[in-house]
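Help wanted!
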Amino acid sequence: MSLLSVEDLDVSFRTSRGPVKANEGISLEVKEGEILALIGETGCGKTTFGKAILRLLSRNVKLEGKILFKGRDLLTLSEKEMRRMRGKEIGIMLQNPSLSLNPVLSVGDQIAEIYRCHENCGKKEAGKKAGEMLELVGIDPSKKSEYPHQFSGGMLQRVMVAMGLALHPGLLIADEPTKGLDPQTKQQIADLISGLVRREGSSLLLITHDLEVAERVADRAAVMYAGEIVETGSAGEIFSSPKHPYTRALLESLPGKGLRAVPGQSPSFVSPPSGCRYHPRCEFRMESCPEIRPGLLELEGGRQVRCLLYEKKARQDTGQETGGKTQ
Amino acid sequence: MWNYIAKRLLLILVVIFGVTLVSFSAMYLAPGDPAEVIAFARYGQDLSAEQIEAVREAEGLDAPVYIQYLNWLEHVLHLDFGKSVISSDDILEEILLRLPATAELALASLFLSLIIAIPAGVLSSLKQNSLLDNACVFTSLLGVSIPNFWLGLLLIWFFALTLRMLPSFGYGSLENLVLPALTLGTSMAAVTTRLTRSSMLEVLKQEYIVAARAKGLDERTILIRHALKNALLPVLTFAGMQLGYLLGGTVIVETIFAWPGLGKLLVDSIFARDFALVQGCVLFIAILFSLSNLAVDILYAVLDPRIRYDKHD
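Answered by r_m:
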């Protein structure tokens, strides 16, 4: 059963040059107890998607579509109902802990306030629970009266894990939890998050540009490019036999697989390329790619891919028009 | 923390030493002969050259300038600021006599400015670009632009002359305090409102505010615990500097309202060419200014752990 089910989500920023869509037509599911990795280059709209789920984007952002969490559409909830969701039902670890933690409050207080707010705990009890949470993520509870600037990057990330999981939410969204860490710490943090999530039977939406981390912990993966999902499938399949040319290029950029950078630059959201958004950088570009906008095509085994190569194949196989809608 | 305070105190000593040098040499370089001023105060018109020379010798004014400076410094270190060359009153006594009036006005106007500025600035930032915000921005621009002497006269004209509600000058009762405090307080509030507003707007954009919201905290907690505590740090620095400046006496407002404070004492002593009194006033004001800055620095360290736990400590 799916815990989170996003249906046809559009996220558009109102700007002076008109609306800019940072996410377009996103449909994505996170099943119960599952770890889903959302991967893609920096600036492709992953973070926007993560924040959109909890409605944390600024007021000039318009959300359209459905975000169903346990069957309830989060976009129809009042701000007060939404507040009860945040932290309690869905926890989020925002990107960049050194900016996401308040510099003038001790780390213990920043965890404890979650209990004080949601569980009406007294100061003492909340402080005790915060200490337990710190211990759970591998920080000496006596450090709870210290301040963020006294912590290293890896320790800060652990504090973020403690905050995200403080109320044992059903879903944790982790935005780039391994960014800027050294390889060893990276693995430790990835294992810590996935370990705790698995132990609690929660689900995890892991937003990352780090393919190695995604491969290490994820059950399923979704690849995002220029605000669109271009491929989804089980993590094993995506990493062993990528379908979309962009996913292939991403994997080839890994140190163990050729270290070949994806050619070109990621497109701007203000004026995205016509047709398939990846066509200017694509090795397998066909004549029709700049003109036809490929839909998300269902393949066998629950895989999805947004590419004309496969639409053509599907048509040839069945001898008729099927599969992805062209917009 | 104690290291930090000790470090600040050392710095203040350096600053005050600098002030003694500057104030002493400024008076030495100013045109006019101090011996003549003293002699004039003692013997009146028709001074003979002998009288002036006698005074010069008696007061040690014939010694080389650095000796004069060191002599003065030695007295100052023993808290002896000397005597006024005009009235022969003890300078420190005179200053301490004037201090309460200045302190009263300073604290009252600072308090007034903060209770106007902080709520106004916060509301303004929370409702950015609303009618309320624009009204606040406009009013504070007006407040910054209106000079104190004009505002003071306007208030006297309205409250003292037209409504006959408040006295236009004098010192002693609470009623006397209202108009000068209002003059100073509102004009400071204008600047502080703008600072509070921009500081709040900056803080509200920070990622830790989003993070606080992501925890499900209510807006009031976010505002007070997460936003205000950060946003008021620059406001505090500014208020502390203003307090230092106010404690030095506000020449214009004290003059308009005949307020017997330090600012008025300093100006009167300058006009009378009472150089010893000028030196004493300048030094005393500099010490007050430094101490109020120290108080702010300490308060800042209490509120901001990044300063408290400076790695260099």
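OP: Thanks! One thing I noticed: Residues 321-327 of chain A have pLDDT under 50 and may be disordered.
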